[in-house]
């Protein structure tokens, strides 16, 4: 007899079930959640590249961010072309970034897969494509299952 496994990779929540030929059973993939068979489609990646998902990700995010010190620095983010009447010029864009940020909390990972021009995001020194983010989340979910 072989087991069949199904994953529901949802925009807000995900789940994993197994089928043994007679019964379908949802797996408790998020023991910290009120309903352990449902896991939030949330990924938290720390500065050390430790990854958390579901309720554990939310708890780690709050643990790392409540009452912590912050230090904002001005950082170059890119350039934009400005057009008006007969003028055209390029302008530098700067953002203020918390250089002490301990991690990134990512929600709605599946939404990024639908956006045609979305290339990905930088998390500290590493660049993640939408596929990389989905792979990271699904790999952790598979380990839990």
Describe the fold and architecture.
The structure is a single chain. The radius of gyration is 20 Å and the shape is elongated. The longest helix has 15 residues, at 130-144. It has a single domain (4-66, 104-144), classed as ATPase, nucleotide binding domain (Nucleotidyltransferase, domain 5), CATH 3.30.420. The protein has helices at residues 54-65, 109-114, 130-144; strands at 4-9, 13-19, 24-26, 39-40, 42-46, 51-53, 72-84, 87-98, 103-107, 121-123, 126-128. Strand 10 (121-123) and strand 11 form a beta hairpin. It is built from three helices and eleven strands, in the order E-E-E-E-E-E-H-E-E-E-H-E-E-H.
Short description:
The protein has helices spanning 54-65, 109-114, 130-144, and strands at residues 4-9, 13-19, 24-26, 39-40, 42-46, 51-53, 72-84, 87-98, 103-107, 121-123, 126-128.
